[in-house]
Amino acid sequence: TTMPSLKPPVEKMLRSGVVYKITCSRCNACYVGQTSRHLLTRIREHRTTTGPVKKHLTECSARLTDDDVEILKSTSRGEAHLLTLEALWINELKPGINTKEEYRSRTLTIKI
User: Cα dist. 9→5, 19, 41, 46, 83 in Å?
Assistant: First the structure.
């Protein structure tokens, strides 16, 4: 469309249905994840819940800020599509903080 949208853009941290990347501000290691909830909620969990992101940030003496979070892709097509997008991004970026190998079970099927 050539007409500009009259809707104000949704703030980054309030978006949902996204694949995101967290980059460590100290060593540039990254983590790729997905959430169907608000991104703010998921990032809050990374800051407080024991897991690979919190463990890395603690070892690196780094602090996770909103500037360290980047949205790679957004979709409203559902959980399966979101998981597939996450798997594709993990395969492409090969993030050092990700520890689970479950994304390898996702395959891309092209229907003609």
Answer: 9, 18, 19, 25, 24
